[in-house]
UniProtKB/TrEMBL annotation:
Key words of the record: Hydrolase, Protease, Viral release from host cell
Protein name (Swiss-Prot/TrEMBL): Prohead serine protease domain-containing protein
Transferase among keywords: no
Domain Prohead serine protease stretches: 1-121
Amino acid sequence: KKGAFKNTILESDIVANKNHNSNFILGRNQSGTLILEEDRKGLKMEIDPPDTTYANDLIVSMERGDIDQCSFAFKVIADKWNNEDKNNVIRTLEKVELRDVSIVTDPAYPQTSAQYRSTEEVFKDFNESIKDKEEKEEQEVRKKKIKSAIREIDVHLIKKELR
């Protein structure tokens, strides 16, 4: 459920690992090398990996497409079960406490994804998103100007008709 990760992201010391192995730390939120946020899909993570052989090997495997999924270890704080349909029981996680997030070869949930992006790619995407936002804002300003001009024309026509 949206919001299930909110408190743990703000309050917990969360580590990013390779395959949930704490001997292969990739980042940590308290050190600023792991950024976690909830997006429309669920939990999103960005890792600034260390310059180590295991991290560099992982990046190579990700670029090749050999490793492309992620996982997270968590403790359930609050959940709800919906068993109205006996053939399809649904569990909704309402609040969880994250233990770690990991880039993995064998995730518990196959719908997950992980990809490596260089700093340059991140900046490029960021700049493009800013440009897109600015273009949308400019379009909104143009629309408002056009609507205002149309209202002025309407008022002018109404005044002419009243004369």
